[in-house]
Specification:
Elements: H1 3-30, H2 36-61, H3 74-102, H4 115-134, H5 138-144, H6 148-157, H7 163-186, H8 188-193, H9 196-205, H10 210-220, H11 227-230, H12 233-240, E1 243-249, H13 255-271, E2 276-282, H14 293-305, H15 313-322, H16 331-344, E3 348-354, H17 367-380, E4 386-393, H18 396-402, E5 408-411, H19 414-428, H20 439-452, H21 457-468, H22 473-481, H23 487-515, E6 520-521, H24 522-530, H25 549-554, E7 558-563, E8 575-580, H26 583-589, H27 601-617, H28 631-644, H29 648-659, H30 668-679, H31 685-693, H32 715-721, H33 725-733, H34 748-754, H35 758-766, E9 774-776, E10 782-784, H36 785-791, H37 795-804, H38 812-826, H39 835-844, H40 859-866, H41 869-877, H42 893-899, H43 903-911, H44 926-932, H45 942-949, H46 972-979, H47 997-1004, H48 1007-1015, H49 1029-1035, H50 1039-1047, H51 1062-1068, H52 1072-1080, H53 1102-1108, H54 1112-1120, E11 1128-1129, E12 1133-1134, H55 1135-1141, H56 1145-1153, H57 1160-1165, H58 1171-1174
Parallel strand pairs: 1-4, 1-5, 2-3, 3-4
Antiparallel strand pairs: 6-8, 7-8, 9-10, 11-12
């Protein structure tokens, strides 16, 4: 690049700098007390612009005496980096000023560059100013015309560097860091384009689409409402300073709409700066999924990770640990990962949670209590960057928990909401039929509603809907004179009108909405409105003319939303789902306050169950061809069936949900039992039709079975699996085979045992069920009924099955089954109730505590991984071998405790004499297993750890609470494992070994672990079959770790089997900054790597590796650093040949420009596709 071209580029940077300075100047002029940071930034930018103007003049004045600049010259790179930096800064400040201009409440927002970002920005500007100031002398310009590597070499070659030379060397290093930071910003788009794997990971974290609920709330918002809060000091302080805010209000005051307004405001704030991150969640009384704390945590994690340049490592580790095995993470794992993300994000994090009061509060539900506990833990962590806001009613249990946490609890006052209600009413009066009303009537409506609303948006909405139906002025006046005073009275009037017009349909609709197992579609609910057990199948003439008629019947009590839920296992077109319009509607209907509507849970479930069973009994598929394989054909078939039987899908899947609620009721023993016996008649078509639609014996259940009747399980199996003991009894009395074995399903005893159906198990045993029968179940494992019962932690069923065998003589095979049942008990993380009691009873009945599972791991190891101190103690006290060799997963029980992050078990095993030196298992040793866990899992104090790992340990102390697996290990456990005498360089040869501990930590990027291991004597040059620390760190792009290893003596030119040299590894995977780092530490740019016997072909040099993978920037860097462009390798030939063979045109062109010789082999290597272009 010639000096004049560079000067022209700099002129553009000057204009950009002046533009940014003006933005800042406008801000400081419009704010009375502008932040000092903005004024400091304006000063430094002015200095930078001045240095650029001076450099522009210098280059023009010395055009003749200044040589052209290479593209890789320090000065050229500095100007390009400065351009990117200024452009990014302009975007950030521009968004901020635009938000302030458009939104009045945004004017109170603070300067978008937080302290850390501000300091970094000022430092970067000062570095650029220094570089450009140094370049306005002839000597300085000549020096900065060199590459960064040449500057470093020149500095090292001088016996005593001048102060100016030292300053320039430091500046060059700083510019490299700035380049790396800017590169991180510019590659976000590329990563987004290539982020299919990231999207899959985010989808695994959470599939909830919160935008549906949010957009629905936003749609209900009247423009201009909610400003009373957005313009308040409370909101401004919460946005500016970390803390917790709780907004509470009466039912119907518009909390959710206000919350959506706050979310939109915070979203706009986040758009003004990339230093802010928003995550929100709506709890909903009608959506069971939204009441799950795991769904909440997963959703928050997904939102915080979305849009980041890379998925944060704690989330990657969570995915790696669970997804390959098909597991979903526990809530403890999710919480720990969420805390790790919040703590590691160098951003302000805003979390907004709406409607805590819509979580169940019944005595048999802990959902609200658990979520409140999570909020407590989150707030108690006192994250320096976390802003939490929640909304709810002012109810006792929420107030007791939140009042002590929040800096301030804010009541949504009626006076504030009434003004918003008035805006809403005025807007309504400008729409629909209200437009034609006389002005004095409009004024009367507005005055009456505003006067009596008392802060209840919901009340005002219902009155507007009632007024909308009035046909005369007189009717409007009478309605206004008799307005209900409360929401309860409002709902009572609506119910009175509903029952007056269509009592039976109205009652049925409300019953189905209140007690259905899932939200119903508009078409399903329309069918339910007219379906009665005695009138099924429904006469087509009796159906509603339009399914939307139910909206007319129920008026403002219900609402419809669109959903693209994956119904019945197929991607479907959007369904219209029906919900209660507001939480207060359902609350009123199920309360004793409702005078007109009454339906007990028992009555409702009996009504729905009976209707569903009758629907199944009358399904007629005689003219249906189920033999379809294409998904589109399946959906066409399903759509046709839905048109004929709108409720058949729901009935097939959920009739059991309602039946089990009343199976001990006298009604069940009458008509419903008779209907079920007809359904469970193996010779009838309805049994097969049901299973063709939905098979509860499969895992997961599936639709559109095309198999013949004999390939599905027997009716007795399904009755047993569903816990319908009276149906099972009748089937057995009718001659059903109690021990019939169904392929993939097992016997009826398997079905009943797996799901803990105790009464059914008793009946089956009484009729001679074979307790010892084994079956190959779906999933491939052969199990007994005892194993499946133990795996579900069904203690009563386990005892029944053991008791059934008590009179039989001892049998080695039976004891083996008991041992397998013992292992099955210890495996599931989700089951704990009765765990130790089941373990104890199985041991008493002869289960072998030293038995091994199918992978060779011991029962003790399985219990240790699970983290159950009581189960481990029981096994040890009954003779379990503490140091038995491990199997496929664990080298020992101690290794399993490490893998399971179970500190209490780890301490117990050490106190009992566990050997820490054993090898084998997945990773090879306990040290390598500890490395396999992410550092964020380690959060225990050194004092507790030392106390636990010492000789003093209370072996008899009972730890009743399940351990928090993600919070009770620390990084110090590595040090303690080494203190136990474990060889820091051990390579145990595990089945999935990733090399010795230092190699594993280097590749995974665990910087603190690497420092610890090196300090404790790990060999930085140790080569294993999988590599050595420096090359694997280089290949993985671990810049800081590469630096640590080099600082501790890693051989920069060592060759290993897996990658060759570290330089070749970095070049192959396009780790530009690491290539630079290795070159400055003496890496041989022309080092040749030769294939070892039995190994796959290798690139001969770093240049060939970069050329073969189309890494143009790396190729250019290597050439500039002296790489021989014509070096040849036996496997790939020259760099030009490998680039030509793979069609990398830009690399070929660069190599030719750099002197590469094009031989016949190179020309012949070009691929057929684009051959001429490549040549």
């Amino acid at each position: 690049m010639d000096p004049l071209s560079l000067a022209a580029s700099i002129a553009g940077f000057i204009s950009l700098g002046i533009e940014i300075t003006k933005i800042i100047s406008d801000y400081t002029a419009s704010v009375n007390h502008a932040e000092e940071e903005s004024q400091e930034l304006e000063t430094e930018l002015s200095a930078l612009v001045g240095s650029l103007q001076a450099l522009e003049r210098f280059l023009k004045d010395h055009e003749d005496s200044t040589r052209p600049f290479r593209e890789s010259a320090v000065l050229v790179n500095a100007t390009l980096s400065c351009d990117s930096f200024l452009d990014h800064l302009k975007t950030t400040l521009g968004k901020f000023m635009e938000a302030r201009r458009k939104k009045g409440w945004c004017r109170k927002l603070t300067w978008p560059l937080k302290k850390g970002r501000h300091t970094q920005t000022i430092s970067t500007i000062q570095r650029f100013t220094q570089v450009f100031s140094l370049s306005i002398t002839v000597d300085g310009c000549k020096l900065l015309a060199k590459t960064a590597e040449e500057v470093a070499i020149l500095n090292q070659g001088q016996l005593s560097s001048s102060q100016a030379m030292e300053e320039i060397t430091v500046l060059v290093k700083d510019l490299r860091l700035i380049d790396q930071q800017l590169l991180g910003k510019t590659t976000v788009v590329e990563q987004t384009q290539k982020g299919h794997e990231q999207e899959r990971l985010l989808e695994w974290l959470s599939s909830s689409d919160l935008s549906i609920k949010h957009n629905a709330a936003i749609k209900m918002r009247e423009p201009g409402t909610g400003l009373w809060f957005l313009e308040s000091e409370d909101f401004c302080n919460w946005v500016s300073s970390p803390g917790f805010l709780w907004l509470y209000g009466i039912p119907g005051c518009g909390k959710t709409v206000l919350c959506s307004t706050i979310i939109e405001a915070v979203r706009e704030i986040c758009l003004t700066s990339d230093e802010r991150k928003l995550a929100y969640f709506y709890f909903d009384f009608q959506e069971i999924e939204s009441q799950d704390e795991g769904v909440l945590l997963g959703s928050l994690l997904r939102q915080l990770c979305a849009g980041e340049a890379a998925i944060p490592k704690p989330v990657q580790d969570l995915y790696t640990r669970n997804h390959p095995s098909g597991y979903q993470p526990s809530t403890e794992e999710l919480e720990s990962t969420l805390f790790a993300i919040i703590g590691s994000l160098e951003k302000e994090v805003y979390i907004i949670l709406d409607a805590l009061d819509e979580l169940p509060e019944k005595h048999d539900s802990t959902k609200r209590r658990e979520v409140l506990r999570r909020i407590d833990r989150m707030v108690s962590r006192r994250f320096a960057n976390l802003h939490i806001l929640t909304t709810s009613r002012d109810v006792m249990d929420i107030r007791e928990k939140l009042a002590s946490l929040c800096g301030q609890a804010i009541s949504i006052q009626s006076s504030h909401v009434d003004a918003d209600i008035a805006k809403y009413v005025r807007t309504c009066l400008k729409e629909d039929r209200f437009v034609r009303l006389p002005d004095y009537i409009k004024a009367l409506i507005e005055a009456k509603l505003a006067e009596q609303a008392d802060g209840m948006f919901r009340w005002a909405f219902c009155q507007i809907e009632t007024l909308r139906e009035c046909d005369t002025i007189g009717e409007i006046k009478r309605t206004l004179d008799t307005l209900p005073k409360t929401l309860d009275e409002t709902y009572e009037r609506i119910l009175a009108d509903m029952f007056k017009q269509s009592a039976e349909k109205a009652w049925a609709i409300l019953v189905w909405l209140l007690f259905s197992a899932r939200p119903l579609t508009l078409e399903e609910l329309a069918e339910a409105a007219v379906a009665r057990p005695d009138t099924i199948p429904v006469d087509p003439d009796d159906r509603l003319i339009e399914s939307t008629e139910i909206l007319r019947i129920c008026r403002s009590l219900i609402t419809v939303s669109k959903d693209d839920t994956d119904y019945y296992g197929m991607d479907c077109e959007e369904f219209s789902l029906v919900h209660f319009a507001h939480f207060s509607v359902k609350e009123y209907l199920v309360s004793e306050r409702s005078k007109l509507f009454c339906a007990s849970a028992e009555t409702a479930h009996e009504f729905i169950a009976s209707s569903c069973i009758r629907i199944l009994l009358h399904l007629d598929f005689s003219d249906v061809n189920f033999d379809v394989s294409e998904a589109s054909s399946q959906w066409d078939l399903f759509h046709d069936l839905l048109h004929k039987y709108p409720l058949f899908g729901y009935a097939a899947e959920h009739w059991t949900t309602h039946s089990v609620q009343i199976k001990n009721n006298i009604v069940f023993r009458g008509r419903i039992l008779d209907d079920l016996l007809r359904l469970f008649d193996r010779g009838s078509s309805c049994f097969l039709n049901w299973l063709r639609v939905y098979d509860p014996g499969m895992s997961p259940p599936w639709f559109f079975c095309t198999e013949a009747t004999q390939t599905v399980a027997s009716p007795l199996f399904y009755a047993s699996r569903l816990g319908l003991h009276e149906v099972a009894e009748r089937l057995l009395q009718s001659g059903a085979d109690v021990n019939e074995l169904s392929k993939g399903y097992g016997t009826p005893l398997h079905g009943a045992s797996k799901y803990g159906c105790c009464e059914t198990v008793k009946i089956l045993l009484r009729h001679g069920a074979n307790v010892d029968a084994v079956a190959r179940l779906y999933g491939g494992e052969t199990k007994s009924a005892l194993e499946v019962a133990a795996g579900g932690c069904h203690e009563d069923v386990v005892r029944l099955l053991l008791r059934a065998n008590a009179h039989k003589p001892a049998d080695q095979c039976r004891f083996w089954r008991y041992s397998l049942a013992l292992q099955a008990t210890l495996r599931p993380w989700w089951a704990d109730d009765g765990l130790d009691r089941i373990v104890e009873v199985l041991i008493k009945h002869g289960a072998d505590v030293n038995a091994r599972d199918r992978g060779g791991d011991t029962t003790l190891a399985i219990a240790s991984y699970r983290g159950s101190v009581r189960a481990v103690r029981l096994l040890l006290n009954n003779g379990a071998d503490l140091n038995a060799p491990g199997g496929k997963e664990y080298c020992s029980a101690l290794d399993a405790a490490v893998r399971g992050r179970s500190l209490n078990v780890f301490k117990l095993l050490l106190a009992r004499g566990a050997n820490p030196h054993m090898t084998g298992g997945r990773y090879g040793s306990i040290l390598q297993s500890a490395i396999s866990l992410r550092p964020e899992d380690y959060e225990m104090s050194p004092r507790d750890l030392l106390a636990g790992l010492g000789a003093v340990y209370d072996d008899e102390e009972d730890h009743d609470e399940e351990e928090n697996h993600d919070e009770e290990f620390t990084l110090h456990i590595l040090s303690q494992i080494i203190d136990l005498g474990v060889d820091v360089n051990i390579h145990g040869g595990g089945s999935h070994s990733e090399g010795p501990a230092l190699e594993m930590a280097s590749e995974r990027g665990y910087e603190d672990m690497v420092r610890l291991l090196v300090a404790r004597g790990a060999d930085v040059n140790l080569e294993s079959s999988t590599g050595s620390p420096l090359p694997v760190a280089a290949a993985a792009g671990r810049h800081q770790i590469v630096q640590i290893l080099l600082d501790h003596g890693a051989d920069v030119n060592a060759q290993i089997t897996r990658y060759g040299t570290a330089l070749q590894a970095a070049a192959e995977f396009a780790k530009y900054s690491i290539v630079q780092l290795l070159l400055t530490h003496g890496a041989d740019v022309n080092s040749q790597v030769h294939r070892r016997q039995g190994m796959p072909p290798k690139y001969g040099s770093a240049l060939q590796a970069a050329s073969g993978n189309d890494h143009v920037d790396v190729v250019k860097l290597l050439i500039d650093s002296g790489a021989d462009v014509n070096a040849r390798n036996d496997d790939y030939g020259t760099a030009l040949e490998v680039a030509t063979r793979r069609g990398h045109r830009d690399v070929v062109q660069l190599l030719l420009q750099s002197g590469a010789t094009h031989s016949r082999d190179a020309l012949g290597s070009a691929p057929a596709k684009d051959h001429l272009e490549t040549v």
